[in-house]
Amino acid sequence: MKLLVMAGISLLLAFTKVTRPAPVAAQQAGIKRTELQRHDISTPGHEAVQVRIDFAAGKAFGKHTHPGEEVIYVLEGLLEYEVAGKAPVTLKAGDVLFIPAGTVHAARNVGKTNGAELATYIVEKGKPIVTLIK
């Protein structure tokens, strides 16, 4: 009987581990990061990760970096991006932005409604997607 109970618990834990979404990095008040998908790519040791990031009106995601490239597609609202070495740029729904690996950058919602982006990362596996800069 103990063996049957232990086997059941093991199966439950294994199922929970397989179906539970990957952890979302660096949540901040007024910013919601929702991981949509994560897949290995043909470059060994790398993966593609897509995340929807929602910014409440007036909220900002502070300076940070990623361990790979970030491709941004603005879904809604007006988002201002500050990328190291460049002048700030304000993007609207349908606009895109490319951020090279390791580049310090920040984003904030400069509109009066929700702002959202689809961020696609091509990154080294096993590294944190977001590293905040103090």
TrEMBL record:
Coiled coil: none annotated. It comes from the Bacteria. InterPro entries: Cupin_2, RmlC-like_jellyroll, RmlC_Cupin_sf. It holds the Pfam family Cupin_2. Signal peptide: none annotated. CDD domains: cupin_BLL4011-like. Residues 53-113 form the Cupin type-2 domain. PANTHER family: CUPIN DOMAIN PROTEIN (AFU_ORTHOLOGUE AFUA_3G13620). This is Cupin domain-containing protein. It comes from Paraflavitalea soli.
